[in-house]
Amino acid sequence: MDESSTQSAATAISPSYINKKGKVVSLGVTRHAAARFISRWRLLFPGRPFENGLDSEIARQFSFASRVTHPTRKDQVRLHRYGMDTLFFRSGNFAFIVKDAVVVTIEICHGSSRYLNKAGPDGYAKE
Questions:
Q1: Which residue of 61, 68, 78, 115 pairs with 88 in a disulfide if CB–CB is 3.0 to 4.6 A?
Q2: pLDDT for res 114
Q3: pTM for the model
Q4: φ, ψ for residue 70 (rounded to 5)?
């Protein structure tokens, strides 16, 4: 194994996107977002482990996401909650909320499974 492949294997994988100016923006992930991703992954895919660890799975799921450019009415309400400088990215199952180049939370965005965002660890609604 040569030095460059060892160095790239040791570097953590982080999600990134290309901004309007064409520059690559690397994103950090808060502990809150990582914890939410783990709990919601377990609700959507019970018994299915991450293929290459948590960081690489978040980055892999984010790589499928596209930026929400035309927010719906519900998205506009969420913009007020998180602040107008917040970006939303959606993939098939997950929505990534990004503020100041940091993923602050990850939600389930698939229509038939959105109720799981408010579910406890057993998959039922919290009391």
A1: 68
A2: 62
A3: 0.78
A4: -120, 90
